[in-house]
Design a protein that fits this description.
The chain contains eight helices and no strands. The chain is mainly α. The chain has one domain.
Length: 232
């Protein structure tokens, strides 16, 4: 497992410059565009980076598998297929967490520059940015966990087409769930409120983390099963 994970990290290191560059660009654009909204808009850049990182690293790693026959060569290495699957999931989670932490840190550094726009550099603001970024990352990770078995079953190109449809369906479901006419949306808004209690935000984020962890375990088990029977 450790050797498989180190192999994945070696690949991830080659992807860091491109993903980090895209993330920095998105962070700067969204932060500048939403700074006029005050505290509520300052987390936009960090949330966007936190949300995009899991999907980008998943598709980038899958694309690397498809290049130069790496996937077939890796199958000849002294790694069990279960180790390969677990290492892939762990590398996606670790990279996503690092990117989310980096985005939050950049946001904290940027806060003093927007005091004139009504943004306050308080502990409450920092906490809300961190919670929003963590929630964005966890929700994106859950989408990745739903799509990841497709990549191990069908390969990069076919799974990419299927995952686009899956993400579109999940997006429509999310919009329907968060619609103002939906009782679930009203219930969530009543919990969060305009000025949510930090304890409530922490509990909500912890609940999302538990759901993500459970989905990760299920997805990893499914991926392991389908990858074992796949003919490389």
């Amino acid at each position: 497992m450790k050797r498989a994970f180190m192999s994945e990290l070696a690949i991830v290191r080659t992807l860091i410059p491109s993903i980090a560059g895209v993330g920095l660009f998105i962070f700067v654009v969204l932060t500048l565009a939403n700074a006029s909204d005050g505290d509520s808009g300052m987390s936009a850049g960090a949330c966007a980076v936190s949300a995009m990182s899991p999907i980008m690293v998943m598709s980038s790693l899958a694309g690397f598998d498809n290049q130069n026959g790496w996937e077939r060569y890796r199958a000849t290495l002294p790694f069990s297929r279960k180790d390969i699957i677990c290492a892939r999931y762990l590398s996606v989670i670790v990279f996503s967490a690092i990117m989310a932490c980096a985005a939050v840190l950049l946001n904290i550094i940027a806060l003093p520059f927007f005091n004139s726009a009504g943004v306050t550099s308080t502990g409450q603001t920092v906490f809300e940015i961190a919670i929003a970024s963590a929630a964005s990352m966890l929700i994106s990770l859950m989408m990745v966990f739903l799509a990841q078995p497709l990549f191990f079953r069908f390969g990069h190109m076919e799974a990419l087409r299927l995952s686009v449809g899956l993400f579109a369906m999940l997006g429509c479901l999310a919009m329907a769930t968060l619609s103002s006419s939906n009782p679930i949306s009203n219930w969530l808004m009543s919990i969060a409120g305009a000025n949510p209690d930090p304890a409530v935000l922490g509990c909500l984020c912890a609940g999302i983390a538990v759901l993500a962890l459970a989905l990760c375990a299920i997805s990893c088990a499914v991926s392991t099963k389908v990858y074992r029977v796949r003919d490389l």
